[in-house]
Amino acid sequence: QVQLVESGGGLVQPGGSLRLSCAASGIISSIYAMGWYRQAPGKQRELVATITSGTPNYGESVKGRPTISRDDTNNTVYLQMNSLKPEDTAVYYCKVSTWRDYWGQGTQVTVSS
Fold first, then answer.
1. How far apart are alpha carbons 46 and 113 in whole angstroms?
2. Closest CA to 109 of 72, 65, 73
């Protein structure tokens, strides 16, 4: 079965950084995009970053702070995000796009002192 294994979430100090990883397995179809979305309590899910074969795209709410990359050999996407703020607190979801979309279970990121 398809599995998206997310890691790297947890408690981070304001101004700190995090690095999230999402490793996809069991996907037969070609992957043309991978990325991260997030959802805070009471808010809609929003784009953090996606990446195709070589083109990154970042959400307006986080512009300038994240860097997304992918390792096609291992079907893994990474999100490096700096200068974290309390409003970055959310559940971060990995998304892998083929002819259909696959979603990870989500990893909690809490930015607090």
1. 24
2. 65
